Amino acid sequence: MFAQDELIAAFAALGGPLTRDEFMRLLGSDKYYGALVRLAAFLLDGDTTAAGDVARDSLDAVQDAWGRLGDPEKARVYLRQVVVDRSRSVRRRRAANGHDTPQAVPGAPGGGHAGIGNHDP
User: Fold this and answer.
1) What 3-state DSSP class applies to 15?
2) Which of 41, 84, 93, 106 could bond to 110 as cystine, CB 3.0-4.6 Å?
3) Could you tell me which of 41, 55, 52, 61 has the C-alpha nearest to residue 110?
4) Residue 26 to residue 46: CA distance in whole angstroms
5) Residue 45 and residue 47: Cα distance in Å, rounded?
6) What tens digit of pLDDT does each residue of 14-38 get?
């Protein structure tokens, strides 16, 4: 899914396992961070503001969990799962508070796409 997978492997091959700081720098890179925001925005109906918050909080969670995770592959999978879980939490909070979720905006990440069953003839 992420173009950085190859970069993680190449980096690890050069100097052994990535340290937590090296891995967090890689995850915080514009390309990887952008992919996390796009995933969260897709799950949040194009709400890029909330998606950015989810992505930042998720990176913090991976940094806090590094001692348990230890290797980049586990951390990468954990990070994606945290983004999904935190996006779900945002949606649940909105629903519980009676807030409508924002309408998808054409051109926004995750917005204006044709979902399952939304195909025009």
Assistant:
1) helix
2) 41
3) 41
4) 25
5) 6
6) 555 666 677 767 766 777 888 899 9
Q: What distance lies between CA 108 and its chain's CA centroid?
A: 16
How far apart, in whole angstroms, are the C-alpha atoms of residue 87 and residue 46? 12
**Amino acid letter for position 19:** T
Q: Confidence class of residue 46 from pLDDT cuts 50, 70 and 90?
A: very high
Q: Which amino acid is at 77?
A: V
Least confident range of 11-15, 16-20, 51-55, 96-100:
11-15
User: Could you give the CA distance from residue 46 to residue 39 in angstroms, rounded to a whole number?
Assistant: 10
- Residue 51 CB neighbours (<10 A): 27
The shares of helix, strand and coil residues in the chain, as percent rounded to the nearest 5, are: 65, 0, 35
